[in-house]
Amino acid sequence: MDKFIKKLETENYEIGSFDAFIDESSKLITDKQNITGEEVVEYLKQMPTTYRASIVDKDGNYVGFIGVKNVDAKNEKADIVFMTFDDVNCSDKNEILEVYKNYLYECINIKKYDQKPKKEKSNIIRSKYITPGIDEKTLSIYKEMYPDMPKLALPVTLSMNGIVFGVIGLTNLIRTNKRADLKIYLSKDMVHFNAEFIAKLIDDYLSYAHKDNIWSINYEIGAGQSTLVSALNESNMSYYGTVPFGDIDLVLAGNLLMFQHTPQILTNKLAIQNEVYVDKRIFDTNRDEMSDMILLDDGYKMIRPDLIEDEKLFKSVLKDFSKAMSNRDNFTIPLGDDKYFPQIGNEKYGLYKALKNYSYIVLDKNDNFIGFINILRQDKYKKHCEIEVAIVPEKQGQGIGTIVTNRFYEELFALGYASVTSKVFGFNKKSQALFDQISEYNGQRIQSYYVNGRLWDMNVYTKLNPLVEKVKIR
Predict the structure, then answer these.
(1) Which of 56, 194, 294, 377 is deepest in the core (most CB within 10 A)?
(2) Could you tell me which of 106, 176, 108 has the C-alpha nearest to residue 452?
(3) Radius of gyration over alpha carbons of the chain, in Å?
């Protein structure tokens, strides 16, 4: 099966999946650089796999590759690696280069190439209570205090008179998206925190992070953490919405409050919704696995792709999936996978792995691939999750997305989920229309995702388990 998936195009050439011609690229490097074996492997490792691509002529013949190395998303620069056979003329090379540079700018905001690095400006925090970095002893103490504490980017230590009372840092830092999630961990030994004081520390940290070229900073917190919620509301962060029953602990399901900040945002003093809780055990069921297959009207079906045993059928589905992924303007993926060059891959990476790991793929009565629906992430108790859905362009507008998503909701609620969330970016108008129709709008995080040459807003939607209407809300 042809593994090349076109993404970019010039008058005479197509630019697409690197892995389709990895052997040819390795040989080209060997010939051009006069290196062999492990040196070629190390050469390829310098280029991030998601941004490198093969180049073929209009007949599908390999002529070279293009990629980047030394990517510095913070300073919006990278080095381009571009290698072709000698018979590719200068005019075509220049056109390929310009098309690829335009892709880098639109998708990951890379503007500079082969420039000497600028001297880093000092990024000192003025607050006397904040020290950049976390020493090993403090890190060990806070990991014991908060077992689920992730690895933090741009971490700082909070201390007063030599006593540490907290740490702050970032997770999910994606510089090409220009965004990150804020994490705040305060000492449990110091229970009486002044909200106004903590708010000032948060503002100082936001300024520190923004100077590091991080644009959009998000914070999600359970409504029951009253002191920290008050501090966030006193700070320059803006409350922009609530995910119902998105905060799950050992016993309770409660509301999850969403805050954000960008350098240009005006603090939004919306009234924060009241604390709402239910005993999460009311959603417990005797099921712990999804159905293998769900039959829909007109012969459509939702099937777990890992259960497809017919190799011929799976290859056919993978081919259709790959074709859809190359049609980025119309095959709507909620998280904007158009940033990357699609690779077929295998069980370890690429579209093959993605397809195998989706919750369900959707097939028609002739077993043609129609789309997929998937749990993108979930809490550890499996009571709240975020989903994504995509339908192939030729089947959009026929109500299939609505049917599939509503049926998936039913399946998740039968498994005991209290609520199901979807996050849809502003460039994805069709998904917005879908979730506007079948779920509850929770709020909008502005300028949250960089792609197609600009920052896009993110819209949050949630569907609640119908049992919520039958139980007493605290």
Answers:
(1) 56
(2) 106
(3) 25
The arithmetic mean of pLDDT across residues 347-353, rounded, is: 91
End-to-end CA distance of the chain: 57
pTM: 0.92
CB half-sphere exposure, 86, CA atoms < 13 A: 2
Average pLDDT value for residue range 130-136 = 95
Give the 3-state secondary structure of 217-284. Answer: EEEEEECCCHHHHHHHHHCCCEEEEEEEEEEECCCEEEEEEEEEECCCCCCCCCCCCCCCEEEHHHHC
Q: Which amino acid is at 221?
A: I
The answer to whether 45 touches 57, Cβ cutoff 8 Å, is no
Identical fold for domains 130-281 and 293-470, yes or no, is yes
- If one looks up domain 293-470 in CATH, what number appears? 3.40.630.30
| Ranges of each domain in the chain | 6-113, 130-281, 293-470
CA distances to 41, 45, 81, 328 from 38, rounded to whole Å, are 5, 11, 19, 35
Amino acid at 454: R
Amino acid at 211: K
- Rounded to an integer, what distance in angstroms lies between the CA atom of residue 343 and that of residue 349? 8
CA distance 368 to 362: 8
Q: Which helix (H) or strand (E) holds 89?
A: none
Compute the distance between CA of residue 431 and CA of residue 460 in angstroms, rounded to an integer: 11
CB distance 402 to 431 below 8 Å: no
Measure the CA–CA gap between 42 and 138, rounded to whole angstroms: 37
Residue 267 pLDDT: 67
Fold of 130-281: Aminopeptidase (3.40.630)
Burial 296-335, CB ≥16 within 10 A → b, else e: beeebbbbbbeebeeeeebebbbebbbebbbebeebbbbb
Q: From CA 221, how far away is CA 232, in angstroms rounded?
A: 10
In whole angstroms, give the CA distance from residue 362 to residue 405.
11
For 164-202, what is each residue's pLDDT tens digit?
999 999 999 999 889 999 999 999 887 678 899 999 999
Strand ranges in 58-215 using DSSP code E only, listed in sequence order: 62-72, 77-84, 112-113, 130-132, 153-160, 163-174, 179-186
Structure tokens at 283: 């959603």
- Which CATH number applies to 6-113? 3.40.630.30
